[in-house]
Amino acid sequence: MLSLDTFAQGKLDALDEAALRRRLVPTERGPEAAAERGGRRLVSFSCNDYLGLSHHPRVIAAAQDAAARYGAGSGGSRLVTGNHPLLGALEERLARHKGKAAALVFGSGYMANLGITPALAGRGDLVLLDELSHACMWAGARLSGARVATFRHNDVGDLARVLDAERAAHSRCLILTERVFSMDGDRAPMGDILGLAERHDAWTLVDDAHGLGVAEEGPRAPLEMGTLSKSLGSYGGYLCASRPVIDLLTSRARSFVYTTGLPPASAAAALEALAILEAEPARRARPLMLARRFTARLGLPEAESAVVPVLVGEAEAALALSRTLEEAGFLVVAIRPPTVPPGTARLRVAFSAAHDTAQVDALAERIAALTGR
Ligand SMILES: *Cc1c(COP(=O)(O)O)cnc(C)c1O
């Protein structure tokens, strides 16, 4: 065997041993939160399609029209040939939605975070992250070459302590957090963080991947990034900010400059989805309402967003619970380290406007029976 394959197999064996190996499972998604696996129809509580817009007829039609008229791909980097006018229209609409002067669409949320922090901070600067920040915020922070430090999750006192200790020794300072945390579903204390940031001349970047359209009220940060792939049901990422910041990123974010522009179909779908999101408050309110119904039934802390963690502990146990639920017709993903800290493996239950209350109640009952709640 090649040493390369021996290396890979050794790593895989260790992952298997720790119940941390990940596998792809062919799954077809359908409307109404349906998923089909191995010929069985399941109700999915695993998707981030919080508003059910990935299957909305108007969103699908917009994507189809755009592909038919403009082609399947964008043809190049947006700075070369790939800047379809649909992207400009989408950016204008995103900026308006966030109350910002401008926006920039990236290939994905991950790519947005890979590009934003390194364009704004470097050696001699300080990047402070909430310790539970998403992997792509860490990746952007590390890539920047700035000093990277953390503060305790949602702990403004700890953030103040780190700023007091470290801010003065650095030139620029960025604070990175999430409006709604992806694996815990809780919300950052944005008002307090922004107040501290202002006092310390630090710039706040908030990742709104799980807030947009579902749990996004509250003060805006100077840098508001997010994804087109969750509540908007499409694909792509974005940053909303002031005009000079967006113009700088257009020239300097490497994950924007050196990559192909978003396909016209993805841009058209996101644009249509944003129009629906803004026009339908009842749709926006539904995921949180369903999540609260679920947490009330199970006696869990009241949901703050469409994401509810059911803590299990060990990876093996979380996987087993997920498998049992799948046998009962529910797709609920088990989240394991390193996505979450060791010992905090969990079910991550994601609610969507596409669910009905009977589905939510049935899931709650099943989890209650399985966990003895
Ligand atoms: C999903 C997610 C991203 C990445 O967005 P993609 O468009 O899927 O690449 C970034 N940040 C957070 C918090 C996320 O949950």
Features:
single chain, 373 residues, alpha/beta, Aspartate Aminotransferase, domain 1, Aspartate Aminotransferase, domain 2, four-stranded mixed beta sheet, 14 strands, binds pyridoxal-5'-phosphate
Summarize this structure briefly.
The protein is α/β, with parallel strands linked by helices. The protein is built from 13 helices and 14 strands. The protein has two domains: 121 residues, Aspartate Aminotransferase, domain 1 (Alpha-Beta Complex); 224 residues, Type I PLP-dependent aspartate aminotransferase-like (Major domain) (Aspartate Aminotransferase, domain 2, 3-Layer(aba) Sandwich).
The number of helices is 13
> What amount of the residues lies in strands?
15-25%
Widest sheet: strand order?
4-10-9-8-7-5-6
- Span between termini: 50 Å
Main beta sheet: 7 strands, mixed
Gross CATH architecture of the largest domain: 3-Layer(aba) Sandwich
Q: Which range best describes the helical content: under 10%, 10-25%, 25-40%, 40-55%, 55-70% or over 70%?
A: 40-55%
Overall shape: globular
Which structural class do you get from the secondary structure elements? alpha/beta
Quaternary structure classification: single chain
Estimated radius of gyration: 21 Å
User: Could you give me the name of the CATH homologous superfamily of the largest domain?
Assistant: Type I PLP-dependent aspartate aminotransferase-like (Major domain)
> Which kinds of small molecule does this entry bind, naming each only once?
pyridoxal-5'-phosphate
CATH topology of the largest domain: Aspartate Aminotransferase, domain 2
The number of distinct structural domains comes to: 2
CATH class group of the largest domain: Alpha Beta
Mean pLDDT: 97
Please provide the ordered H/E string of secondary-structure elements.
HEEEHHEHEHEHEHEEEHHHHEHEEEH
Total beta-strand segments: 14
